[in-house]
Amino acid sequence: MAYTNAATEKHIVEVADLDAGHTVLVLGPGPGVGLRAAAERAAVAIGVDPSEDMLRLSEQRCADLVRSGSVRLQAGTAERTGLDDDSADVAVTVNNVQLWADRRAGFAEIARVLRPGGRLVLSVHEAHLSVTRHQLAAEAEAAGFVDVQSWTWDPPGMFAGRAVQLRGVNKKDGAS
Ligand SMILES: C[S@@+](CC[C@H](N)C(=O)[O-])C[C@H]1O[C@@H](n2cnc3c(N)ncnc32)[C@H](O)[C@@H]1O
Questions:
Q1: Which of 3, 11, 98, 104 is 20–30 Å from 161 (CA)?
Q2: Ligand 1: lining residues by beta carbon, under 6 Å
Q3: Domain tally for the chain?
Protein backbone atom coordinates (compact mmCIF):
# COMPACT_ATOMS: atom_id res chain seq x y z
CA MET A 1 0.00 0.00 0.00
CA ALA A 2 2.80 2.39 0.91
CA TYR A 3 3.98 2.22 -2.71
CA THR A 4 0.85 1.50 -4.74
CA ASN A 5 -1.27 4.24 -3.18
CA ALA A 6 1.47 6.79 -2.49
CA ALA A 7 0.74 8.98 -5.52
CA THR A 8 -2.94 9.17 -4.64
CA GLU A 9 -2.23 9.91 -0.99
CA LYS A 10 0.09 12.80 -1.93
CA HIS A 11 -2.27 14.06 -4.63
CA ILE A 12 -5.23 14.21 -2.26
CA VAL A 13 -3.17 16.15 0.29
CA GLU A 14 -2.47 18.68 -2.48
CA VAL A 15 -6.19 18.85 -3.27
CA ALA A 16 -6.87 19.45 0.44
CA ASP A 17 -4.86 22.71 0.19
CA LEU A 18 -3.67 22.57 3.80
CA ASP A 19 -2.08 25.44 5.64
CA ALA A 20 0.22 25.63 8.64
CA GLY A 21 -2.62 26.35 11.06
CA HIS A 22 -4.79 23.38 10.16
CA THR A 23 -5.73 20.40 12.30
CA VAL A 24 -6.27 17.52 9.88
CA LEU A 25 -8.11 14.26 10.51
CA VAL A 26 -6.59 11.47 8.37
CA LEU A 27 -9.02 8.56 8.37
CA GLY A 28 -7.53 5.14 7.71
CA PRO A 29 -3.92 6.27 7.23
CA GLY A 30 -2.70 2.68 6.80
CA PRO A 31 1.08 2.84 6.41
CA GLY A 32 1.04 6.61 6.87
CA VAL A 33 2.19 8.12 3.56
CA GLY A 34 -0.67 10.63 3.37
CA LEU A 35 -0.55 11.19 7.13
CA ARG A 36 3.07 12.25 6.85
CA ALA A 37 2.38 14.48 3.84
CA ALA A 38 -0.51 16.14 5.68
CA ALA A 39 1.50 16.71 8.86
CA GLU A 40 4.31 18.35 6.87
CA ARG A 41 1.85 21.00 5.67
CA ALA A 42 -0.43 21.44 8.70
CA ALA A 43 -0.16 22.14 12.43
CA VAL A 44 -1.20 18.65 13.39
CA ALA A 45 -2.45 15.54 11.59
CA ILE A 46 -4.47 13.01 13.57
CA GLY A 47 -4.47 9.50 12.14
CA VAL A 48 -7.47 7.39 13.14
CA ASP A 49 -7.47 3.71 12.19
CA PRO A 50 -9.03 0.60 13.76
CA SER A 51 -6.01 -1.59 13.00
CA GLU A 52 -3.20 -1.77 15.55
CA ASP A 53 -0.88 -3.02 12.80
CA MET A 54 -1.64 -0.01 10.61
CA LEU A 55 -1.28 2.41 13.52
CA ARG A 56 2.14 0.88 14.20
CA LEU A 57 3.20 1.28 10.54
CA SER A 58 2.04 4.90 10.57
CA GLU A 59 3.95 5.49 13.80
CA GLN A 60 7.12 4.07 12.25
CA ARG A 61 6.82 6.18 9.10
CA CYS A 62 6.08 9.35 11.11
CA ALA A 63 8.30 8.68 14.16
CA ASP A 64 9.96 12.11 14.09
CA LEU A 65 6.61 13.88 13.65
CA VAL A 66 5.03 11.87 16.47
CA ARG A 67 7.91 12.97 18.69
CA SER A 68 7.44 16.62 17.72
CA GLY A 69 3.68 16.43 18.27
CA SER A 70 2.59 17.16 14.71
CA VAL A 71 1.31 13.60 14.22
CA ARG A 72 -1.11 12.00 16.66
CA LEU A 73 -2.40 8.47 16.28
CA GLN A 74 -5.45 6.90 17.84
CA ALA A 75 -7.63 3.83 17.43
CA GLY A 76 -11.05 4.50 15.95
CA THR A 77 -13.22 4.19 12.89
CA ALA A 78 -14.90 6.52 10.45
CA GLU A 79 -18.13 5.94 12.33
CA ARG A 80 -16.52 6.61 15.73
CA THR A 81 -13.33 8.64 15.51
CA GLY A 82 -13.07 9.60 19.18
CA LEU A 83 -12.40 13.24 18.21
CA ASP A 84 -14.23 16.16 19.83
CA ASP A 85 -16.94 18.16 18.09
CA ASP A 86 -15.64 20.88 15.73
CA SER A 87 -12.02 19.87 16.41
CA ALA A 88 -10.68 19.49 12.85
CA ASP A 89 -10.35 21.91 9.94
CA VAL A 90 -9.96 19.28 7.22
CA ALA A 91 -10.69 15.55 6.95
CA VAL A 92 -8.76 13.46 4.43
CA THR A 93 -9.63 9.87 3.60
CA VAL A 94 -8.02 7.69 0.92
CA ASN A 95 -9.06 4.15 -0.05
CA ASN A 96 -11.06 3.92 3.11
CA VAL A 97 -14.74 4.68 2.47
CA GLN A 98 -15.26 1.22 0.92
CA LEU A 99 -14.49 -0.27 4.35
CA TRP A 100 -16.90 1.78 6.42
CA ALA A 101 -19.56 -0.38 8.03
CA ASP A 102 -22.12 2.41 7.61
CA ARG A 103 -21.38 5.27 5.15
CA ARG A 104 -24.22 7.42 6.47
CA ALA A 105 -22.80 7.17 10.00
CA GLY A 106 -19.28 7.80 8.68
CA PHE A 107 -20.20 11.00 6.85
CA ALA A 108 -22.22 12.17 9.88
CA GLU A 109 -19.24 11.54 12.18
CA ILE A 110 -16.91 13.51 9.90
CA ALA A 111 -19.43 16.38 9.84
CA ARG A 112 -19.55 16.28 13.65
CA VAL A 113 -15.79 16.56 14.16
CA LEU A 114 -15.20 19.14 11.42
CA ARG A 115 -15.65 22.76 12.40
CA PRO A 116 -18.28 24.77 10.51
CA GLY A 117 -16.79 25.49 7.09
CA GLY A 118 -14.30 22.64 7.51
CA ARG A 119 -13.58 20.52 4.46
CA LEU A 120 -13.77 16.84 3.55
CA VAL A 121 -11.52 15.44 0.80
CA LEU A 122 -11.95 11.79 -0.18
CA SER A 123 -10.43 9.40 -2.71
CA VAL A 124 -11.24 5.76 -3.39
CA HIS A 125 -10.42 3.22 -6.09
CA GLU A 126 -13.38 3.37 -8.47
CA ALA A 127 -13.38 -0.43 -8.69
CA HIS A 128 -13.89 -0.70 -4.91
CA LEU A 129 -16.88 1.61 -4.76
CA SER A 130 -20.31 -0.01 -4.68
CA VAL A 131 -22.13 3.22 -5.62
CA THR A 132 -21.54 5.87 -8.30
CA ARG A 133 -19.58 9.00 -7.45
CA HIS A 134 -22.85 10.93 -7.78
CA GLN A 135 -24.53 8.70 -5.20
CA LEU A 136 -21.52 9.12 -2.91
CA ALA A 137 -21.79 12.89 -3.30
CA ALA A 138 -25.51 12.72 -2.46
CA GLU A 139 -24.67 10.78 0.71
CA ALA A 140 -22.18 13.47 1.74
CA GLU A 141 -24.80 16.15 1.07
CA ALA A 142 -27.33 14.26 3.19
CA ALA A 143 -24.85 14.47 6.08
CA GLY A 144 -24.67 18.26 5.73
CA PHE A 145 -21.84 18.88 3.27
CA VAL A 146 -22.36 21.59 0.66
CA ASP A 147 -20.51 22.58 -2.51
CA VAL A 148 -19.85 18.87 -3.00
CA GLN A 149 -17.87 18.10 -6.13
CA SER A 150 -16.81 14.68 -7.42
CA TRP A 151 -14.55 13.67 -10.28
CA THR A 152 -12.28 10.85 -11.42
CA TRP A 153 -8.47 10.87 -11.35
CA ASP A 154 -6.01 8.50 -13.00
CA PRO A 155 -2.91 7.97 -10.86
CA PRO A 156 0.42 7.63 -12.66
CA GLY A 157 1.58 4.09 -13.42
CA MET A 158 0.32 1.33 -15.68
CA PHE A 159 -1.34 -0.71 -12.94
CA ALA A 160 -2.85 2.06 -10.85
CA GLY A 161 -6.63 2.01 -11.14
CA ARG A 162 -8.82 5.06 -11.63
CA ALA A 163 -9.85 6.88 -8.47
CA VAL A 164 -13.13 8.56 -7.59
CA GLN A 165 -12.50 11.74 -5.60
CA LEU A 166 -14.81 14.10 -3.77
CA ARG A 167 -14.64 17.28 -1.76
CA GLY A 168 -17.23 19.18 0.22
CA VAL A 169 -17.65 21.87 2.85
CA ASN A 170 -19.24 21.26 6.25
CA LYS A 171 -22.34 23.45 6.37
CA LYS A 172 -22.91 23.01 10.11
CA ASP A 173 -24.14 26.14 11.92
CA GLY A 174 -25.03 27.93 8.71
CA ALA A 175 -21.56 28.04 7.12
CA SER A 176 -21.79 28.28 3.33
C1 LIG B 1 -6.81 0.02 1.94
S2 LIG B 1 -6.11 0.73 3.41
C3 LIG B 1 -5.70 2.36 2.81
C4 LIG B 1 -4.60 2.99 3.57
C5 LIG B 1 -4.10 4.31 2.98
N6 LIG B 1 -5.06 5.36 3.13
C7 LIG B 1 -3.71 4.13 1.54
O8 LIG B 1 -4.44 4.57 0.65
O9 LIG B 1 -2.67 3.52 1.31
C10 LIG B 1 -7.56 1.01 4.40
C11 LIG B 1 -7.28 1.52 5.79
O12 LIG B 1 -8.53 1.83 6.41
C13 LIG B 1 -8.58 1.22 7.69
N14 LIG B 1 -10.00 0.96 8.05
C15 LIG B 1 -10.69 -0.20 7.96
N16 LIG B 1 -11.96 -0.03 8.37
C17 LIG B 1 -12.08 1.28 8.72
C18 LIG B 1 -13.14 2.07 9.25
N19 LIG B 1 -14.37 1.59 9.47
N20 LIG B 1 -12.89 3.38 9.51
C21 LIG B 1 -11.66 3.91 9.30
N22 LIG B 1 -10.62 3.20 8.80
C23 LIG B 1 -10.83 1.91 8.52
C24 LIG B 1 -7.70 -0.01 7.56
O25 LIG B 1 -7.23 -0.48 8.81
C26 LIG B 1 -6.58 0.51 6.67
O27 LIG B 1 -5.57 1.15 7.40
A1: 104
A2: 1, 5, 9, 27-30, 34, 49-51, 54, 77-78, 94-96, 99-101
A3: 1
